[in-house]
Specification:
This protein is mainly α. The chain contains 23 helices and 6 strands. Among the domains are: about 120 residues, no CATH class; about 90 residues, no CATH class.
Length: about 550
Amino acid sequence: MPEQIENPPISYNMAPYTGPWTKAEAAHLLRRTLFGPTNQQILDAVSAGMNTTVTNLLQIPVIGEPLTYHPNEAIVPFGSPWTNAVYPSGAAAAGTTANARNLSLAAWMMKRINEEQLTIAEKMCLFWHNHFAATATGDPRATYDYHALIRQHALGNFRQFVKDITINPAMLLFLNGATNTLYSPNENYARELLELFTVGKGPQIGPGDYTNYTEEDVAAGAKILTGYLVDGIGSDTATDVTANFTPILHDTSTKTLSVHFGSVSVPDNGPNEYADYIDIIFQQNATAEYICRKLYRYFVNYDLTVAVETNVIPIMAATLISNNYEVLPVIAQLLKSVHFYDVSVRGALIKSPIEMIWSMFNGTESVPGFDLLTDSELNVLVYSYSDAMGQGYAAPPSVAGWAAYYQAPAFSQLWVNSALLKTRFQITDYMTYLAGIPANGNTWELNVFAFLDNLSLPANAPSVINDIADVFTPKGMSATQKLILKAVLTNGLPDFEWTIEYNNYVNNPGNITYSDPVKTRIKLVLQQVFHMPEFQTI
Protein backbone atom coordinates (compact mmCIF):
# COMPACT_ATOMS: atom_id res chain seq x y z
CA MET A 1 0.00 0.00 0.00
CA PRO A 2 1.22 3.52 -0.70
CA GLU A 3 2.40 5.49 2.29
CA GLN A 4 -0.33 7.74 3.69
CA ILE A 5 0.52 11.44 3.54
CA GLU A 6 -0.47 13.26 6.70
CA ASN A 7 -1.48 16.90 6.83
CA PRO A 8 1.40 19.12 7.91
CA PRO A 9 1.19 20.47 11.46
CA ILE A 10 -0.55 23.81 11.86
CA SER A 11 1.72 26.75 12.64
CA TYR A 12 0.48 29.14 15.32
CA ASN A 13 3.49 31.40 14.92
CA MET A 14 2.52 35.08 15.08
CA ALA A 15 5.91 36.26 13.82
CA PRO A 16 5.99 37.96 10.39
CA TYR A 17 5.49 35.61 7.48
CA THR A 18 8.57 35.18 5.24
CA GLY A 19 7.55 32.14 3.19
CA PRO A 20 6.61 31.91 -0.48
CA TRP A 21 4.58 34.85 -1.82
CA THR A 22 2.59 33.57 -4.78
CA LYS A 23 -0.93 34.05 -6.11
CA ALA A 24 -2.14 31.56 -3.49
CA GLU A 25 -0.94 33.64 -0.53
CA ALA A 26 -1.85 36.98 -2.10
CA ALA A 27 -5.35 35.77 -3.02
CA HIS A 28 -5.91 34.45 0.51
CA LEU A 29 -5.02 37.85 1.97
CA LEU A 30 -7.30 39.69 -0.46
CA ARG A 31 -10.23 37.30 -0.05
CA ARG A 32 -10.19 37.85 3.70
CA THR A 33 -9.88 41.63 3.46
CA LEU A 34 -11.98 42.44 0.37
CA PHE A 35 -15.40 41.42 -0.90
CA GLY A 36 -13.92 39.57 -3.86
CA PRO A 37 -10.52 40.38 -5.41
CA THR A 38 -9.95 40.55 -9.15
CA ASN A 39 -7.23 38.62 -10.93
CA GLN A 40 -5.34 41.85 -11.52
CA GLN A 41 -5.51 42.80 -7.84
CA ILE A 42 -4.06 39.40 -6.97
CA LEU A 43 -1.26 39.81 -9.50
CA ASP A 44 -0.55 43.33 -8.23
CA ALA A 45 -0.37 42.01 -4.68
CA VAL A 46 2.13 39.36 -5.74
CA SER A 47 4.29 42.04 -7.38
CA ALA A 48 4.02 44.47 -4.45
CA GLY A 49 4.79 41.88 -1.77
CA MET A 50 3.03 41.17 1.49
CA ASN A 51 4.16 44.18 3.52
CA THR A 52 3.26 46.78 0.90
CA THR A 53 -0.06 45.09 0.15
CA VAL A 54 -1.06 45.00 3.81
CA THR A 55 -0.04 48.65 4.21
CA ASN A 56 -2.17 49.59 1.21
CA LEU A 57 -5.12 47.58 2.50
CA LEU A 58 -5.01 49.36 5.86
CA GLN A 59 -6.03 52.71 4.40
CA ILE A 60 -9.56 53.99 4.94
CA PRO A 61 -10.52 56.20 1.98
CA VAL A 62 -13.02 59.03 2.23
CA ILE A 63 -16.37 58.25 0.59
CA GLY A 64 -19.44 60.27 -0.35
CA GLU A 65 -22.79 60.37 1.41
CA PRO A 66 -25.93 58.58 0.21
CA LEU A 67 -27.78 60.52 -2.47
CA THR A 68 -31.47 61.07 -3.08
CA TYR A 69 -32.79 59.04 -6.01
CA HIS A 70 -36.32 58.00 -5.03
CA PRO A 71 -39.30 60.14 -6.15
CA ASN A 72 -40.85 59.97 -2.67
CA GLU A 73 -38.12 62.23 -1.27
CA ALA A 74 -40.00 65.46 -0.52
CA ILE A 75 -37.23 67.79 0.66
CA VAL A 76 -33.90 67.19 -1.06
CA PRO A 77 -33.40 67.53 -4.84
CA PHE A 78 -32.57 64.44 -6.89
CA GLY A 79 -28.91 63.46 -6.64
CA SER A 80 -28.23 65.44 -3.44
CA PRO A 81 -27.26 64.24 0.07
CA TRP A 82 -30.11 64.11 2.59
CA THR A 83 -28.18 63.28 5.77
CA ASN A 84 -28.60 66.79 7.21
CA ALA A 85 -32.04 67.59 5.86
CA VAL A 86 -35.31 68.14 7.70
CA TYR A 87 -38.51 66.18 7.06
CA PRO A 88 -41.77 67.49 5.62
CA SER A 89 -44.56 68.36 8.06
CA GLY A 90 -47.10 65.66 8.75
CA ALA A 91 -46.56 62.06 9.76
CA ALA A 92 -47.53 60.56 6.41
CA ALA A 93 -45.26 62.80 4.35
CA ALA A 94 -42.39 62.38 6.80
CA GLY A 95 -42.81 58.60 6.74
CA THR A 96 -42.80 58.49 2.95
CA THR A 97 -39.63 60.60 2.83
CA ALA A 98 -37.99 58.43 5.50
CA ASN A 99 -38.72 55.34 3.41
CA ALA A 100 -37.11 56.98 0.36
CA ARG A 101 -34.05 57.76 2.46
CA ASN A 102 -33.88 54.21 3.77
CA LEU A 103 -33.78 52.94 0.18
CA SER A 104 -31.05 55.45 -0.61
CA LEU A 105 -29.15 54.20 2.44
CA ALA A 106 -29.43 50.57 1.31
CA ALA A 107 -28.18 51.49 -2.17
CA TRP A 108 -25.28 53.44 -0.64
CA MET A 109 -24.24 50.49 1.52
CA MET A 110 -24.11 48.15 -1.46
CA LYS A 111 -22.40 50.72 -3.70
CA ARG A 112 -19.65 51.12 -1.11
CA ILE A 113 -18.90 47.39 -1.23
CA ASN A 114 -19.08 47.24 -5.03
CA GLU A 115 -16.63 50.15 -5.38
CA GLU A 116 -14.38 49.35 -2.43
CA GLN A 117 -11.05 49.25 -4.33
CA LEU A 118 -8.00 47.93 -2.41
CA THR A 119 -9.00 48.62 1.20
CA ILE A 120 -10.06 46.63 4.22
CA ALA A 121 -12.53 49.40 5.08
CA GLU A 122 -15.73 47.62 4.07
CA LYS A 123 -14.75 44.33 5.70
CA MET A 124 -13.99 46.22 8.92
CA CYS A 125 -17.30 48.11 8.70
CA LEU A 126 -19.22 44.85 8.49
CA PHE A 127 -17.18 43.45 11.38
CA TRP A 128 -17.99 46.42 13.62
CA HIS A 129 -21.61 46.51 12.49
CA ASN A 130 -21.90 42.90 13.63
CA HIS A 131 -20.05 43.68 16.89
CA PHE A 132 -22.07 46.79 17.78
CA ALA A 133 -25.16 45.26 16.19
CA ALA A 134 -27.93 47.84 15.96
CA THR A 135 -30.83 47.77 13.53
CA ALA A 136 -31.92 50.74 11.45
CA THR A 137 -33.68 53.49 13.40
CA GLY A 138 -36.93 55.27 12.55
CA ASP A 139 -34.85 58.17 11.24
CA PRO A 140 -32.40 57.30 8.43
CA ARG A 141 -30.23 60.26 9.44
CA ALA A 142 -29.48 58.54 12.75
CA THR A 143 -28.87 55.24 10.97
CA TYR A 144 -26.44 56.97 8.61
CA ASP A 145 -24.61 58.62 11.52
CA TYR A 146 -24.21 55.21 13.18
CA HIS A 147 -22.67 53.69 10.03
CA ALA A 148 -20.50 56.76 9.47
CA LEU A 149 -19.21 56.38 13.03
CA ILE A 150 -18.36 52.74 12.36
CA ARG A 151 -16.35 53.71 9.30
CA GLN A 152 -14.63 56.54 11.19
CA HIS A 153 -13.39 54.05 13.80
CA ALA A 154 -12.82 51.11 11.44
CA LEU A 155 -9.11 50.85 12.29
CA GLY A 156 -9.02 53.41 15.07
CA ASN A 157 -9.01 53.36 18.85
CA PHE A 158 -11.34 50.70 20.23
CA ARG A 159 -11.75 52.39 23.62
CA GLN A 160 -12.78 55.69 22.03
CA PHE A 161 -15.06 53.76 19.68
CA VAL A 162 -16.88 52.24 22.66
CA LYS A 163 -17.25 55.68 24.20
CA ASP A 164 -18.64 57.18 21.01
CA ILE A 165 -21.03 54.31 20.24
CA THR A 166 -22.35 54.47 23.82
CA ILE A 167 -23.87 57.92 23.24
CA ASN A 168 -24.59 57.48 19.53
CA PRO A 169 -28.28 58.28 18.94
CA ALA A 170 -28.94 55.07 17.00
CA MET A 171 -27.48 52.94 19.80
CA LEU A 172 -29.27 54.97 22.47
CA LEU A 173 -32.53 54.23 20.67
CA PHE A 174 -31.78 50.58 19.90
CA LEU A 175 -30.81 49.52 23.43
CA ASN A 176 -33.09 51.87 25.35
CA GLY A 177 -30.35 54.20 26.50
CA ALA A 178 -32.61 57.14 25.64
CA THR A 179 -35.13 55.94 28.23
CA ASN A 180 -32.54 55.09 30.90
CA THR A 181 -33.11 57.70 33.63
CA LEU A 182 -32.70 58.24 37.34
CA TYR A 183 -36.41 57.58 37.75
CA SER A 184 -36.57 54.51 35.52
CA PRO A 185 -33.19 52.78 35.11
CA ASN A 186 -32.92 50.53 32.05
CA GLU A 187 -30.18 47.90 32.04
CA ASN A 188 -30.27 46.91 28.37
CA TYR A 189 -27.23 48.81 27.16
CA ALA A 190 -25.34 48.41 30.44
CA ARG A 191 -25.64 44.64 30.08
CA GLU A 192 -24.61 44.47 26.42
CA LEU A 193 -21.73 46.88 27.02
CA LEU A 194 -20.19 44.23 29.27
CA GLU A 195 -21.48 40.99 27.76
CA LEU A 196 -21.15 41.70 24.04
CA PHE A 197 -19.10 44.85 23.50
CA THR A 198 -16.13 44.73 25.92
CA VAL A 199 -15.11 42.16 28.57
CA GLY A 200 -17.47 39.35 27.60
CA LYS A 201 -19.49 37.24 29.98
CA GLY A 202 -17.27 34.26 30.73
CA PRO A 203 -18.43 31.11 32.55
CA GLN A 204 -20.80 31.64 35.45
CA ILE A 205 -18.87 31.15 38.70
CA GLY A 206 -21.58 32.06 41.19
CA PRO A 207 -25.05 33.54 41.54
CA GLY A 208 -25.09 36.59 39.28
CA ASP A 209 -21.30 36.32 38.73
CA TYR A 210 -20.06 35.69 35.18
CA THR A 211 -16.25 35.63 35.66
CA ASN A 212 -15.71 39.09 34.15
CA TYR A 213 -18.59 41.02 35.73
CA THR A 214 -21.60 40.61 38.02
CA GLU A 215 -25.27 41.54 37.94
CA GLU A 216 -24.40 44.30 40.38
CA ASP A 217 -22.03 45.74 37.77
CA VAL A 218 -24.87 45.77 35.25
CA ALA A 219 -27.09 47.66 37.70
CA ALA A 220 -24.32 50.10 38.57
CA GLY A 221 -23.53 50.61 34.89
CA ALA A 222 -27.15 51.44 34.12
CA LYS A 223 -27.07 54.18 36.76
CA ILE A 224 -23.79 55.52 35.40
CA LEU A 225 -25.28 55.74 31.90
CA THR A 226 -28.48 57.59 32.87
CA GLY A 227 -29.42 60.98 31.52
CA TYR A 228 -28.94 60.84 27.75
CA LEU A 229 -31.87 61.67 25.48
CA VAL A 230 -32.19 61.71 21.70
CA ASP A 231 -33.52 64.83 19.98
CA GLY A 232 -34.56 65.58 16.42
CA ILE A 233 -36.05 62.24 15.31
CA GLY A 234 -38.23 62.82 12.22
CA SER A 235 -38.20 66.56 12.81
CA ASP A 236 -39.38 69.15 10.27
CA THR A 237 -37.11 71.73 11.92
CA ALA A 238 -34.01 69.91 13.20
CA THR A 239 -31.44 69.11 10.52
CA ASP A 240 -29.84 66.27 12.47
CA VAL A 241 -30.40 63.78 15.27
CA THR A 242 -28.44 64.42 18.45
CA ALA A 243 -27.75 62.86 21.83
CA ASN A 244 -28.20 65.34 24.68
CA PHE A 245 -27.23 64.93 28.32
CA THR A 246 -30.00 66.03 30.66
CA PRO A 247 -28.63 66.52 34.22
CA ILE A 248 -31.98 66.20 35.97
CA LEU A 249 -32.34 62.64 34.62
CA HIS A 250 -28.87 61.49 35.68
CA ASP A 251 -28.20 59.42 38.80
CA THR A 252 -25.67 61.48 40.78
CA SER A 253 -24.97 58.85 43.43
CA THR A 254 -21.58 57.18 43.75
CA LYS A 255 -21.66 53.72 42.15
CA THR A 256 -19.45 50.88 43.35
CA LEU A 257 -18.32 48.13 41.00
CA SER A 258 -17.54 44.53 41.86
CA VAL A 259 -14.22 42.91 42.65
CA HIS A 260 -13.81 42.17 38.93
CA PHE A 261 -13.21 45.89 38.49
CA GLY A 262 -11.19 46.35 41.66
CA SER A 263 -14.26 47.30 43.71
CA VAL A 264 -13.71 50.87 42.54
CA SER A 265 -16.19 53.68 43.11
CA VAL A 266 -17.45 55.80 40.25
CA PRO A 267 -18.43 59.26 41.51
CA ASP A 268 -20.83 61.57 39.72
CA ASN A 269 -19.20 63.24 36.74
CA GLY A 270 -22.24 64.39 34.80
CA PRO A 271 -21.96 64.00 31.03
CA ASN A 272 -18.48 62.44 31.31
CA GLU A 273 -19.28 59.73 33.83
CA TYR A 274 -19.96 57.14 31.12
CA ALA A 275 -16.43 57.72 29.77
CA ASP A 276 -14.93 57.26 33.25
CA TYR A 277 -16.74 53.94 33.50
CA ILE A 278 -15.51 52.76 30.12
CA ASP A 279 -11.93 53.64 31.08
CA ILE A 280 -12.33 51.32 34.08
CA ILE A 281 -13.67 48.52 31.87
CA PHE A 282 -10.66 48.89 29.57
CA GLN A 283 -8.29 48.33 32.48
CA GLN A 284 -9.34 44.68 32.32
CA ASN A 285 -7.23 42.50 30.00
CA ALA A 286 -10.38 40.50 29.28
CA THR A 287 -11.54 43.40 27.07
CA ALA A 288 -8.55 43.05 24.75
CA GLU A 289 -8.82 39.26 24.70
CA TYR A 290 -12.53 39.38 23.93
CA ILE A 291 -12.28 41.66 20.91
CA CYS A 292 -9.21 39.81 19.60
CA ARG A 293 -11.17 36.55 19.65
CA LYS A 294 -13.85 38.16 17.53
CA LEU A 295 -11.29 39.57 15.10
CA TYR A 296 -9.68 36.14 14.82
CA ARG A 297 -13.00 34.43 14.12
CA TYR A 298 -13.85 37.00 11.47
CA PHE A 299 -10.54 37.12 9.62
CA VAL A 300 -8.96 33.71 10.26
CA ASN A 301 -11.07 30.83 11.57
CA TYR A 302 -14.09 30.34 13.80
CA ASP A 303 -12.36 27.45 15.60
CA LEU A 304 -10.82 28.87 18.78
CA THR A 305 -8.82 25.81 19.71
CA VAL A 306 -6.68 25.48 22.81
CA ALA A 307 -3.66 26.12 20.60
CA VAL A 308 -5.19 29.35 19.30
CA GLU A 309 -6.14 30.47 22.81
CA THR A 310 -2.62 29.70 23.99
CA ASN A 311 -0.47 30.95 21.12
CA VAL A 312 -2.46 33.51 19.13
CA ILE A 313 -5.03 35.40 21.21
CA PRO A 314 -2.59 36.45 23.98
CA ILE A 315 -0.17 37.82 21.38
CA MET A 316 -2.90 39.83 19.67
CA ALA A 317 -4.26 41.10 23.00
CA ALA A 318 -0.80 42.17 24.15
CA THR A 319 -0.35 44.12 20.92
CA LEU A 320 -3.71 45.81 21.39
CA ILE A 321 -2.95 46.79 24.98
CA SER A 322 0.59 47.99 24.26
CA ASN A 323 -0.79 50.19 21.48
CA ASN A 324 -3.37 51.84 23.75
CA TYR A 325 -6.20 49.87 22.11
CA GLU A 326 -5.45 51.05 18.58
CA VAL A 327 -6.89 48.41 16.27
CA LEU A 328 -4.66 48.93 13.23
CA PRO A 329 -1.47 47.43 14.73
CA VAL A 330 -3.35 44.27 15.71
CA ILE A 331 -4.85 43.81 12.25
CA ALA A 332 -1.47 44.46 10.64
CA GLN A 333 0.17 41.89 12.93
CA LEU A 334 -2.52 39.32 12.17
CA LEU A 335 -2.45 39.80 8.39
CA LYS A 336 1.34 39.56 8.31
CA SER A 337 1.65 36.55 10.61
CA VAL A 338 2.89 33.08 9.75
CA HIS A 339 -0.32 31.66 11.21
CA PHE A 340 -2.57 33.71 8.92
CA TYR A 341 -1.02 32.09 5.84
CA ASP A 342 -1.13 28.54 7.18
CA VAL A 343 -2.78 26.26 4.65
CA SER A 344 -5.19 25.00 7.31
CA VAL A 345 -7.06 28.32 7.53
CA ARG A 346 -7.52 28.83 3.79
CA GLY A 347 -11.10 28.06 2.88
CA ALA A 348 -11.93 27.49 6.55
CA LEU A 349 -14.84 29.95 6.52
CA ILE A 350 -18.05 29.84 4.51
CA LYS A 351 -18.88 33.09 2.75
CA SER A 352 -21.61 35.17 4.26
CA PRO A 353 -24.37 36.19 1.84
CA ILE A 354 -22.80 39.62 1.37
CA GLU A 355 -19.41 38.02 0.71
CA MET A 356 -20.91 35.50 -1.70
CA ILE A 357 -22.85 38.02 -3.79
CA TRP A 358 -20.13 40.62 -4.03
CA SER A 359 -17.36 38.13 -4.71
CA MET A 360 -19.23 37.41 -7.95
CA PHE A 361 -19.60 41.06 -8.91
CA ASN A 362 -16.29 42.39 -7.64
CA GLY A 363 -14.28 39.40 -8.83
CA THR A 364 -15.56 39.99 -12.36
CA GLU A 365 -15.13 43.79 -12.17
CA SER A 366 -18.89 44.24 -12.52
CA VAL A 367 -20.47 47.58 -11.58
CA PRO A 368 -23.89 48.78 -12.77
CA GLY A 369 -22.60 51.88 -14.58
CA PHE A 370 -25.96 53.21 -15.82
CA ASP A 371 -27.27 56.28 -13.98
CA LEU A 372 -28.04 57.20 -10.37
CA LEU A 373 -31.66 56.00 -10.51
CA THR A 374 -30.92 52.68 -12.22
CA ASP A 375 -27.75 51.96 -10.25
CA SER A 376 -29.55 52.69 -6.98
CA GLU A 377 -32.49 50.43 -7.86
CA LEU A 378 -30.09 47.64 -8.81
CA ASN A 379 -28.14 47.99 -5.58
CA VAL A 380 -31.37 47.89 -3.58
CA LEU A 381 -32.28 44.66 -5.38
CA VAL A 382 -28.90 43.17 -4.49
CA TYR A 383 -29.49 44.30 -0.91
CA SER A 384 -32.78 42.38 -0.94
CA TYR A 385 -31.03 39.27 -2.28
CA SER A 386 -28.56 39.33 0.59
CA ASP A 387 -31.42 39.88 3.02
CA ALA A 388 -33.23 36.86 1.54
CA MET A 389 -30.15 34.77 2.30
CA GLY A 390 -30.12 35.88 5.93
CA GLN A 391 -27.88 38.95 5.99
CA GLY A 392 -29.60 42.26 5.50
CA TYR A 393 -27.09 45.04 6.07
CA ALA A 394 -28.37 47.36 8.83
CA ALA A 395 -30.71 44.58 9.96
CA PRO A 396 -28.82 42.13 12.19
CA PRO A 397 -31.26 39.68 13.80
CA SER A 398 -30.29 40.58 17.37
CA VAL A 399 -27.95 42.67 19.47
CA ALA A 400 -25.51 39.75 19.28
CA GLY A 401 -25.29 40.14 15.48
CA TRP A 402 -25.63 37.34 12.96
CA ALA A 403 -25.54 33.88 14.53
CA ALA A 404 -22.99 32.58 12.02
CA TYR A 405 -20.36 34.78 13.65
CA TYR A 406 -20.85 33.44 17.18
CA GLN A 407 -23.09 30.37 17.42
CA ALA A 408 -21.13 27.19 18.18
CA PRO A 409 -20.50 24.66 16.84
CA ALA A 410 -21.78 25.47 13.33
CA PHE A 411 -20.67 29.11 13.01
CA SER A 412 -20.37 30.05 9.30
CA GLN A 413 -21.97 26.76 8.25
CA LEU A 414 -25.26 28.39 9.28
CA TRP A 415 -25.10 30.41 6.07
CA VAL A 416 -25.68 27.32 3.92
CA ASN A 417 -28.64 25.36 5.17
CA SER A 418 -30.73 23.71 2.46
CA ALA A 419 -33.09 26.66 1.98
CA LEU A 420 -30.39 29.32 1.92
CA LEU A 421 -28.14 27.31 -0.38
CA LYS A 422 -30.97 27.03 -2.91
CA THR A 423 -31.35 30.82 -2.81
CA ARG A 424 -27.61 31.20 -3.40
CA PHE A 425 -27.80 29.09 -6.52
CA GLN A 426 -30.83 31.00 -7.79
CA ILE A 427 -28.98 34.29 -7.47
CA THR A 428 -25.83 33.00 -9.15
CA ASP A 429 -27.98 31.67 -11.99
CA TYR A 430 -29.53 35.11 -12.45
CA MET A 431 -26.07 36.47 -13.14
CA THR A 432 -24.84 33.62 -15.35
CA TYR A 433 -27.39 31.30 -16.92
CA LEU A 434 -30.15 33.94 -16.98
CA ALA A 435 -30.02 37.50 -18.28
CA GLY A 436 -28.96 39.35 -15.13
CA ILE A 437 -30.79 41.75 -12.82
CA PRO A 438 -33.34 44.07 -14.48
CA ALA A 439 -34.14 47.60 -13.28
CA ASN A 440 -35.51 50.75 -14.88
CA GLY A 441 -35.37 49.26 -18.37
CA ASN A 442 -31.76 48.13 -18.01
CA THR A 443 -30.10 44.85 -17.05
CA TRP A 444 -27.02 44.39 -14.88
CA GLU A 445 -24.95 41.47 -16.06
CA LEU A 446 -21.56 40.19 -15.02
CA ASN A 447 -18.86 42.07 -16.91
CA VAL A 448 -17.42 38.91 -18.43
CA PHE A 449 -15.40 40.74 -21.07
CA ALA A 450 -13.53 42.94 -18.59
CA PHE A 451 -13.00 39.87 -16.43
CA LEU A 452 -11.75 37.74 -19.31
CA ASP A 453 -9.56 40.42 -20.90
CA ASN A 454 -7.74 41.00 -17.61
CA LEU A 455 -6.81 37.36 -17.07
CA SER A 456 -3.20 36.34 -17.58
CA LEU A 457 -3.60 34.68 -20.99
CA PRO A 458 -7.25 35.03 -22.05
CA ALA A 459 -6.70 33.31 -25.40
CA ASN A 460 -5.33 30.20 -23.70
CA ALA A 461 -8.06 27.87 -22.40
CA PRO A 462 -6.04 26.14 -19.62
CA SER A 463 -4.72 29.50 -18.41
CA VAL A 464 -8.24 30.94 -18.27
CA ILE A 465 -9.41 28.06 -16.08
CA ASN A 466 -6.33 28.34 -13.85
CA ASP A 467 -6.95 32.05 -13.28
CA ILE A 468 -10.64 31.44 -12.55
CA ALA A 469 -9.62 28.88 -9.94
CA ASP A 470 -7.14 31.36 -8.43
CA VAL A 471 -9.75 34.12 -8.19
CA PHE A 472 -12.74 32.17 -6.91
CA THR A 473 -11.53 29.11 -4.97
CA PRO A 474 -9.32 29.50 -1.88
CA LYS A 475 -7.92 25.98 -2.08
CA GLY A 476 -7.91 25.71 -5.84
CA MET A 477 -9.52 22.99 -7.93
CA SER A 478 -8.64 19.40 -8.72
CA ALA A 479 -7.25 18.48 -12.13
CA THR A 480 -10.56 16.79 -12.93
CA GLN A 481 -12.58 19.89 -12.06
CA LYS A 482 -10.35 22.01 -14.28
CA LEU A 483 -10.72 19.59 -17.18
CA ILE A 484 -14.50 19.67 -16.85
CA LEU A 485 -14.53 23.47 -16.80
CA LYS A 486 -12.18 23.63 -19.77
CA ALA A 487 -14.56 21.38 -21.70
CA VAL A 488 -17.38 23.82 -20.88
CA LEU A 489 -15.22 26.73 -22.03
CA THR A 490 -14.25 25.11 -25.32
CA ASN A 491 -17.62 23.42 -25.83
CA GLY A 492 -15.76 20.12 -25.92
CA LEU A 493 -13.56 21.20 -28.82
CA PRO A 494 -9.73 21.29 -28.89
CA ASP A 495 -8.10 24.15 -27.00
CA PHE A 496 -7.05 25.95 -30.16
CA GLU A 497 -10.71 26.47 -31.03
CA TRP A 498 -11.05 28.69 -27.94
CA THR A 499 -7.98 30.62 -29.05
CA ILE A 500 -9.55 31.24 -32.46
CA GLU A 501 -12.87 32.22 -30.91
CA TYR A 502 -11.29 34.65 -28.46
CA ASN A 503 -9.04 36.25 -31.09
CA ASN A 504 -12.03 36.71 -33.40
CA TYR A 505 -13.78 38.60 -30.61
CA VAL A 506 -10.73 40.78 -29.97
CA ASN A 507 -10.19 41.54 -33.67
CA ASN A 508 -13.84 42.43 -34.29
CA PRO A 509 -14.80 44.84 -31.51
CA GLY A 510 -18.52 45.46 -31.20
CA ASN A 511 -19.47 42.57 -33.45
CA ILE A 512 -21.85 40.36 -31.47
CA THR A 513 -21.35 37.53 -33.94
CA TYR A 514 -17.93 37.06 -32.36
CA SER A 515 -18.50 38.43 -28.85
CA ASP A 516 -21.70 36.55 -27.95
CA PRO A 517 -20.15 33.05 -28.18
CA VAL A 518 -17.27 34.14 -25.94
CA LYS A 519 -19.70 35.70 -23.46
CA THR A 520 -21.83 32.55 -23.42
CA ARG A 521 -18.89 30.20 -22.79
CA ILE A 522 -17.48 32.29 -19.93
CA LYS A 523 -20.89 32.66 -18.27
CA LEU A 524 -21.43 28.90 -18.47
CA VAL A 525 -18.06 28.31 -16.84
CA LEU A 526 -18.81 30.83 -14.09
CA GLN A 527 -22.20 29.26 -13.48
CA GLN A 528 -20.45 25.94 -12.83
CA VAL A 529 -17.88 27.61 -10.58
CA PHE A 530 -20.47 29.52 -8.56
CA HIS A 531 -22.26 26.25 -7.79
CA MET A 532 -19.08 24.59 -6.51
CA PRO A 533 -18.66 24.04 -2.77
CA GLU A 534 -15.15 25.47 -3.18
CA PHE A 535 -16.61 28.82 -4.27
CA GLN A 536 -18.76 29.03 -1.13
CA THR A 537 -15.68 29.17 1.09
CA ILE A 538 -13.21 31.91 1.72
